[in-house]
Amino acid sequence: MSKQPELWGGLECTVNRVGERFGDQIHATGHQHRVEDIGHFAAIGLQAIRYPLLWERISPDSPDRCDWSWTDERLARLRQLDLRVIAGLVHHGSGPRYTSLVDDDFASGLAEHARRTAERYPWISDWTPVNEPLTTARFSALYAHWYPHARSERLFWLALLNQIDGTRLAMREIRRVNPAARLIQTDDLGRTYATASLREQARFDNIRRWAGWDLLCGMVTRDHPLWDRMAACGLEDRLSAIADDPCPPDVIGINHYLTSDRFLDHRLQRYPHHVHGGSEVQLYADVEAVRVLEPPPQGLEGAVREAWERYRLPVAVTEVHNGCTREEQLRWVAQAWDIATRLNGEGMSVEAVTIWSLLGSVGWNTLLTRPGHYEPGVWDVSSGRPRPTAMIPLLRSLRGKAERPLAATGTGWWQRPERMVHPPVARPAPMVQHIGLGREVRAIKPLLICGATGTLGQAIAGACRLRNIPYVLTRRADLDLSDGRSIEAALDRIQPWAVANAAGWVRVDDAEDEEGPCLTANAAGAIALARACGERRIPTLSFSSDLVFGGDKGAPYVEGDAIRPCNNYGISKARMEEGIAALDGAHLIIRTAAFFSPHDQFNFAHAVIQTLRSGRPFAAADDLVITPTYVPHLTSTALDLLIDRETGIWHLSNGEALSWAEFARRVAQRCGHDPALIQGVPHAGFGWKAARPANAALASDRGAHLPPLSCAIDHFADHLAPQIALQAA
After folding, report:
1. pTM
2. Which of 237, 303, 474, 638 could form a disulfide with 479 if both were Cys (CB 3.0 to 4.6 A apart)?
């Protein structure tokens, strides 16, 4: 039986400088003020945690003024809970304000910080003085993303050597305190592929990726392919000093992401402009290899194999994270664990797999150069409080404590045809890789979706197809919510892992004359379905509306606010909520509002564009406030919450409160039409039978926020444009 790796965890803790601004992920994710997070980390079965004791945070203003209060409290708690610490001293940083990656005193300053830290915490045995030195040098001194914002090959090599010397000197000081201290040296590791005319660039990139580890191992001597290049930058004496006094890592820490393998192509016309770049001698597109190569690149398994074969030192996968939908996050982690276990079985030494971004991360979509998106980790902290996600049951299953969640099974997007976004390029590989190895097909329980004829049912099914989530989409003939026997027969026949109820009455004004049918569809049927699911321990997802509120709060409504519907449709949804809340079982109810989507012609935003295209003005209510919701964003987050086994009521919208008229103007302008054609009028002029709340805007106290409305409107416009062009043709 293959030896299992240890399970480590990692806290995204970057403190990096952009201009005069320092960004701090510890503050961004709220861990700065939540010592109780430590207990959560220990409870999921981690054996070690990469934890920040960062130079920039402890001595920000002067090396002689150290503030240990924050680290003292947290390290005491980690030690009390027997959670082994892998101490990080600089994480994608350039040191405090009084130094930088290219300053002469960087290495000695880091060594002094390491000495003080080791003396204060002599019981820590595992250390990463500098996280990803090669990557940090590239981003700071070659690409100018981070301080000192240089674009110089000499400064790039200087920044790398300063970090390597900082690591060597830091470990020397640490081992004076604790001779058994281990160096766990991390860096991003991928492979560069290229067209034939760019073979030399790819060859250089594939040599350079090892530079940090090679230097520490004393391998960069006069016969190393990088010696002459660095020596030409005036760094020969530095290279000789490192080679004469190396500091080989005890563990090679590999950080491999789906973006780590790259492909370089001289045929710029095949790719969008934003991926165009190049060297001083040749222009090329630089894209994710997984998006263009067939068969796909070597991935994590290839990176681990290469590192083992090059160094014959123990390896750890020190960052495993996929910023994607929940099931894709689960699949990536599960596959990384299986790879490590399998390679151990082949005689390699893969010491650990590290679950990265325990609390998520903020701004990596902009490479931390400006404000950006939040990506959840094992916990989602978007509400300000850590909310456990489906990652936790997966981690328990990896240690043999539970069955692996169904959502973690199946192929990830990186293994499916939809991974390709550029014209395919054949990768030289054995024929069996081109044909594809047969994958084990296992019967996986589907998600049952009620409501095949509705916008939401079709949208959930579409999201499942995109995410490789097996599903069954039912019509009334397959599952009749007004017939208890039909409900039970369908559940017993399909045996789903969860049920998403997207069926029901949607005609708000007609409900005023047909109260009974509306209540039957939206309340009685939904409650009967949830009851039958609860008896079978099947989680459910149901949808409610902003129309359960009266509209007189004067501010957006949150989940705990009292409901007071003002029309029959709202009453039907309120009764559904109350009835399901009284049932046993795992039931999730999402309140949302004002759907819009480019994939459905029967929604407000689509009607705006169709009217304006004909040259006619469009009238919209300017006295009703709503929070529009983009259906693809809604379905994606709803599925994540269902996979996380969340329950209770959640509000999901794109977060901006505005009138129907203002929403129409925003859509019109983004789609290239004159917003002056939108006529704001009182809603009474439309002759609606059902009363509407004046202000039914939704907000959330629970987190899981959708992207901003501006992003949703951009997506709507971008996806609608091809449809309009096709109609015009």
Report:
1. 0.93
2. 474
DSSP letters for 129-165: EEE-HHHHHIIIIIS-SSTT----HHHHHHHHHHHHH
What letter does residue 658 receive in the DSSP assignment? Answer: E
Structure token pair of residue 544: 């409610």
Decide if 621 contacts 679 (C-beta within 8 A): no
Give residue 464's Cα distance to chain centre: 18
DSSP β-ladder status, 293-294 and 425-426 = parallel
63 cis-preceded (ω within 30 degrees of 0): no
- Does residue 389 contact residue 330 with C-beta atoms inside 8 Å? no
DSSP 77: H
Q: How many CB atoms lie within 10 A of CB 489?
A: 14
Alpha carbons 171 and 330: distance in angstroms, whole number:
35
Instruction: Give the number of residues written for the chain.
Output: 729
Question: By 3-state DSSP, what share of the chain in percent is helix, strand and coil, each rounded to 5?
Answer: 45, 20, 40
The owner of tokens 């019967």 is 443
For residue 401, what are its two tokens? Answer: 């404590």
CB 247 within 8 A of CB 167: yes
Number of Cβ within a 10 Å radius of residue 306: 18
**Residue 589 β-bridge partners:** 542, 649
User: Residue 171 and residue 183: Cα distance in Å, rounded?
Assistant: 7
Per DSSP, the chain holds a count of helices (H) and strands (E) of: 24, 32
Close Cβ partners of 466 (under 8 Å, ≥ 6 residues apart): 418
Provide the β-strand partners of residue 188: 255
Helix (H, G, I), strand (E, B) or coil at 255: strand
Output phi, psi for 323, to 5 deg.
-80, 85
CA distance 416 to 436: 11
Q: CA-CA distance, 629 to 380, in Å (whole number)?
A: 21
Amino acid at 229: R
Query: Is 696:551 a contact under the CB 8 Å cutoff?
Result: yes
| Cα–Cα distance measured from residue 557 to residue 261, given in angstroms and rounded to the nearest whole number | 45
Name the phi and psi angles at 131, rounded to 5. Answer: -80, 130
Residue with structure tokens 């803790």? 13
Q: Which of 114-123, 236-245, 328-337, 699-708 has the lowest mean pLDDT?
A: 699-708
Q: Token pair of 514, please? A: 């047909």
Per-residue b/e over 127-140, b at no fewer than 16 CB within 10 Å? bbbbbbbbbbbbbb
Distance CA 378, CA 37 (A): 12
pLDDT value of residue 401: 73
Angstrom distance (rounded) from CA 385 to CA 41? 14
Residue 297 preceded by cis peptide, ω within 30: no
Cβ(456)–Cβ(543) under 8 Å?
A: yes
Burial of residue 706, with CB atoms counted within 10 A of its CB: 0-12 exposed, 13-18 middle, 19 or more buried: buried
- Residue 249 CA to residue 498 CA, distance in Å, equals 47
Residues near 196 by Cβ (< 8 Å), separated by ≥ 6? Answer: none
Q: How far apart are alpha carbons 41 and 85 in whole angstroms?
A: 12
Q: Which domains does the chain have, with CATH numbers?
A: 6-190+247-261+297-409 (3.20.20.80), 262-295+422-443 (no CATH), 447-728 (3.40.50.720)
pLDDT (tens digit per residue) in 91-105: 999 999 999 999 999
Q: Are strands 387-388 and 379-380 parallel, antiparallel or unpaired?
A: antiparallel
Q: pLDDT tens, 280-333?
A: 889 999 999 999 999 999 999 999 999 999 999 999 999 999 999 999 999 999
- pLDDT higher at 279 or 19: 19
CA 212, 217, 218, 219 torsion-angle sign:
negative
Amino acid at 450: C
631 near 602, Cβ under 8 Å?
no
Q: Which pLDDT belongs to residue 704?
A: 73
Tell me which residue has tokens 């009521």. Answer: 649
